[in-house]
């Protein structure tokens, strides 16, 4: 099945460079045109944005591997949102406490997002 591509004029929202982009959509939204321009532009900010989006996609795969698709989707989405905020430099780190026995720390270290899960062990002795 062949999908027809349409040629559109898009403008990089970072540097203002205009370019032609090919999209499989006849009437794309402004967001779709901006995304295509960012992917095709050679300016520094567009390159940083593409790099951040790749980091976020890699993080999503790692989070899905760590927490599985069948486990609590709310926790997985929360962690992904925190990672997104770290990647896009809105926050530096976060710690999520799950009950009093488990916590998840998320921070950036050496240009990579680090997710650390800590399980607290409880020892009970009867005398």
Q: Can you put this structure into words, describing what you see?
A:
With 127 residues, this protein is α+β, with helices and mostly antiparallel strands. The protein folds into two domains: 6-42, no CATH class; 46-119, no CATH class. It contains three helices and five strands. The chain has helices spanning 30-40, 44-67, 73-87; strands spanning 6-11, 18-23, 93-98, 102-109, 112-119. The chain has a three-stranded antiparallel β-sheet with strand order 3-4-5, with helices on one face. It has a two-stranded antiparallel sheet with strand order 1-2. Helix 1 packs across helix 2 and helix 2 runs antiparallel to helix 3 (73-87).
Annotation keywords:
single chain; 127 residues; 5 strands
Provide the fold topology.
Blueprint: E1 6-11, E2 18-23, H1 30-40, H2 44-67, H3 73-87, E3 93-98, E4 102-109, E5 112-119
Antiparallel strand pairs: 1-2, 3-4, 4-5
Amino- and carboxy-terminal Cα gap: 73 Å
**Strand segment count:** 5
Oligomer class: single chain
Overall number of structural domains: 2
Largest sheet: 3 strands, antiparallel
Gyration radius from CA atoms, angstroms: 21 Å
In short:
The chain is an alpha+beta fold and 127 residues long. The chain has three helices and five strands.
């Amino acid at each position: 099945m062949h999908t027809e591509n349409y040629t559109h004029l898009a403008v990089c929202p970072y540097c203002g460079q205009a370019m032609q982009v090919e999209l499989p959509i006849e009437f794309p939204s402004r967001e779709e045109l901006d995304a295509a321009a960012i992917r095709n532009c050679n300016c520094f900010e567009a390159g940083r944005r593409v790099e951040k989006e790749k980091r976020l996609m890699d993080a999503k795969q790692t989070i899905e591997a760590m927490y599985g698709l069948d486990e609590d989707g709310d926790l997985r989405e929360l962690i992904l949102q925190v990672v997104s905020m770290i990647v896009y430099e809105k926050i530096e780190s976060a710690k999520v406490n799950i009950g009093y026995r488990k916590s998840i720390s998320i921070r950036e270290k050496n240009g990579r997002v680090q997710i650390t899960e800590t399980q607290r062990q409880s020892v009970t002795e009867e005398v």
